[in-house]
Amino acid sequence: MAWCAHAQTPIRVGSKADNEGAFLGQVILQVLKHEGIPVVDHTQLGPTSIVRRALLGGDLDVYPEYTGNAAFFFHREHDAAFRDAAQAYALAASLDRVNHVTWLKPAPADNHWAIGVRKDVAEANQLQSLLDFARWANPNVLLAGSAEFVESDAALPAFQKAYGFTLHGEQLLVLAGGDTSATIKAAAEGISGVNASMVYSTDGAIAVTGLVVLEDPKHVEMVYQPAPVVRDEVLKQYPAMRGALEAAFAPLTVERLRELNARTQINGEDASKVAADYLREQGLTR
């Protein structure tokens, strides 16, 4: 263990309440424990607004956040930098200095809104990107999505504008709520003729169903790489946490995160067990 925990203030570890947030929060928690740093578990605390407020208010010390969300925190949604991975991280880190918050290096995975197509449909129609999708969409597609995905200027309307296609009402199956596992299942199983789905690019259901996630060569979506964000005061007290947490996030590619998310989202495994298995497999804990 790299740190002696005697008489030290525990680090309060938070996360968002979703499956991926719970897993990433447990990765942070368990890495810090392994480093001998005392921790308090506040993972699955709530949505972004609550967790972010807790960090800035000094009620949390570290949690996993996505680089693209910094665009909304600082009202920079139209800044092209947030559509490039390296620039998004650099800008997020720079902007948050005013709050005495440090962004550690993010995982390579990019978790953004996307469109997935059934594998057999993608292969038969040579669909690899949204450029291909635009060519094929009318009248062939029936897409399942949430009301937010269908209506939000940052989601389907943005894809339609950038790639020059329009899905009409009869080509959309709008499902209540924002559960991508339901939309992915509808596409994978062809429910009601659905052959395409809104997805988040690291969804666990993608790994299980084999849905083909279409590439976004025009970078319509901002980059959302998960990274530990930590209050400067805490990082100064426990400098060893930087290297340990960055080593734990570095192997999390899109494919790896999909596999791990599938264990919690599809198999119903506890996030703490999935995180423990992952860290052990990477040789980061014993």
Folded structure, characterized:
The protein is α/β, with parallel strands linked by helices and 286 residues long. It has helices spanning 19-34, 48-56, 69-73, 85-95, 119-125, 130-140, 147-151, 156-163, 180-189, 204-209, 232-237, 240-249, 254-265, 271-281; strands at 11-16, 39-46, 62-66, 101-103, 113-117, 143-146, 172-175, 196-200, 212-213, 226-231. β1 (11-16), α1 and β2 form a beta-alpha-beta unit. α1 (19-34) packs across α12 (240-249) and α1 (19-34) packs across α14.
Task: Give a short synopsis of this structure.
The chain is an alpha/beta fold. It has helices spanning 19-34, 48-56, 69-73, 85-95, 119-125, 130-140, 147-151, 156-163, 180-189, 204-209, 232-237, 240-249, 254-265, 271-281, and strands at 11-16, 39-46, 62-66, 101-103, 113-117, 143-146, 172-175, 196-200, 212-213, 226-231.
Helix amount, in percent? 40-55%
Count of discrete domains: 2
Number of strand elements: 10
CATH overall fold name of the largest domain = D-Maltodextrin-Binding Protein, domain 2
The number of helical elements comes to: 14
Sketch the major β-sheet.
Answer: 5 strands, mixed
Instruction: Round the Cα radius of gyration to an integer and report it.
Output: 20 Å
